[in-house]
Amino acid sequence: MKPRDMLQLGFFLGFPGMSSDCPITLKGLGSGLKSYSYGLGVSARKSAGYVLSFKVTLAYYNMLGLDYKNNGNVNNSPVILENYVSPRRYVHNYRTQVFAPSFEALFSFNNIMFHTRQQHWNFYATVGISPLMYKTKMDLLDADGQKYLFDKVVNTTDSKSTIKKGLRQMMDGNYETAADEVAGSKKMFGLNLRTSFIFGAGIEYSLSKRMSLNVEYKRFLTNDDYMDGWYRQSGNLQNPVFTSSYDNIGVCNIGINITVGNSKKRVPPLWWLNPLDFMYQDVKQTKTTIKVVQQMKDDDGDGVLNSLDLEPNTPEGSPVDTKGRALDTDGDGIPDYKDKEKLTQQSCFPVDADGIGHCLPPACCNVVQQQSQQVIAQKDSVPPACTLSSLPSIRFAKDNKLSVENKKKLADIAKQIKNSPTCNITICGYVARKTKAAHKATWNRVNAVLKYLIEKQGVPQKRLFFIFDDRGKSNTIVFKVAPRDIKSPVDQNQPIKSKE
What pLDDT was estimated at residue 287? Predict the structure, then answer.
C-alpha cells in the first residue's frame, strides 16, 4: 500500500525572456521595479507516486525589450505610422506583463535506487499547460505626446551599450502605447488569453526533511507573434510580410520549498523516497524477528536461553549457573562435568587436567618421614667393608725418580683403587737412619708416588694416606689397605710439595 505523503508549497523568483524580434533586456526604460525584467510566483506540489507528481503554479512575469537600431517597419502600430513616417525610422521597445497560472506533471528520475536509501538531489522533467494572459505596451511618445528624436541617439557610431544608455536617458519609460493584437483575440480580465504548452526541467536539493531549494527552466509555447508588439517584417500594407516565428517565453526560476503536514502520520513527498526502502525495512524487520526467535532458543539444553547464555555450547546434562556457565564447585578451574575430584581443598591447588589436587602431608607425617630419612642416612653413612686384598710395592733407584716399570705398577695400583671405591690406601715410606737427609729422601719418594697417582692417574687425594716406618728398606714404597680410623699426616687441602 502506497504511504500517505505531505504537500509541498513553493515560492520562487523568475528571470524571464522572450524569443522575440526585439532584443530582450534586464534593464528597460524608466525607473522603479517596472523598469526591470523579473518574475515571481507560488506553487503547490503533490505526488501521485514515486515518479509522477503534479504541481499548480501561479506566476507573474514583467518582460522588457529594447532595440538599439533604427527600424523602418512603421506598420506594427498606428502610432508608429502616424509619427515616424518621415523620417521612416524609430527604435522598437516593449513591456509585456504576463500572468501565467499553470498545471504541470513532473517526472522524477533518480529516486528509485537499489543501494541508496534517500537522495539529497532530485532531477525532474515537467510538462504542462497554462491559460497564459498578457498585455504589451510600447514607449513611443514622450510625456507631452510628442515623438522621440531617435536620430540624435541612434544615428551614431557608438557602441550598443552607449546607444541603449542614451535611449534610457531620453525616453520616459511610461509605455503609454498599447501594442496591436490579433483580431478576435480571446480575453480574460481584459488581457489577451493564450493557451500555452509548457515543458522544462529542474533540479531540487533537500536542505532538511521539510525544506528544499530548486532551480528550473521552463518554456511557454504561446503560438502568438504579437507579444513583443512587432509582428511585421515589411511596411508594405498591400503585401504585408509577417515575422517567421512566434514569441515564446523562456523563464529560469529559483525557488524555496516547504513541506507541510503531520510528520507522524505522513511521510515526506514520495519523490524524495526510494520505494525499495519499504522492502528493505520489511527484510530488516524479518531479520530482527528471526533474531528474536533465535534468542528464545536454548541450543545446549541447559535451561538458559541463547540470549542470556554466556556459554551456549555446554555439554548436555552439565550443571550450569543462571548465566549458562558450567559450574565449578571447588573453584579449581576445571568445570564439574570434567572434574574427577569436585571438592578439592584449596591447599591442594593447583590441580591437574582432571581436577585432582596435590596435597601436602600433615605435620605428624612430616616428623615420621624425617625420622625415617635420618635412619636411612645413618645406615647409608656406614661404608661397606673393603675387599681389596694386597697391592704390589715399588723400589726406587738411587736418583729417586719413577722408572717406567714403577709407573706401570702405579697405573695398575690406581686402577684397583678406583675399582674399590670403599677402600682407602696407606703409602708407607721407610727411613733407615734417623737423619734429616734420610727423612727428606724418603719424603721425596713418597711425594713422587702421591703426585703421580693424583695428578696422572686421577686417584682422589682424600683416599691416600702415608706413614713413616723404620722397619724396612729406604728405597721401597709399600701400599696397604688403610684402617678406617687412620689420619693422614698430609694436609688434604694443600698441594703436595717436597719438604725441605
Answer: 67
The C-alpha R_g of the chain, in whole angstroms, comes to: 64
Instruction: Using the Cα atoms of residue 481, residue 486, residue 490 and residue 493 in order, give the sign of their dihedral.
Output: positive
pLDDT on residue 494: 38
Q: Residues 483-495: pLDDT tens digits?
A: 876 665 544 433 3
What structural domains and CATH numbers belong to the chain?
7-277 (2.40.160.20), 394-481 (3.30.1330.60)
Q: Alpha-carbon torsion 220, 194, 51, 11, what sign?
A: positive
Instruction: State pLDDT tens for residues 301-332.
Output: 777 877 777 788 888 878 888 887 878 787 77
pLDDT of residue 499: 38
Burial 484-496 (b: 16+ CB within 10 A, else e): eeeebebeeeeeb
Do the beta carbons of residue 93 and residue 69 sit within 8 Å? no
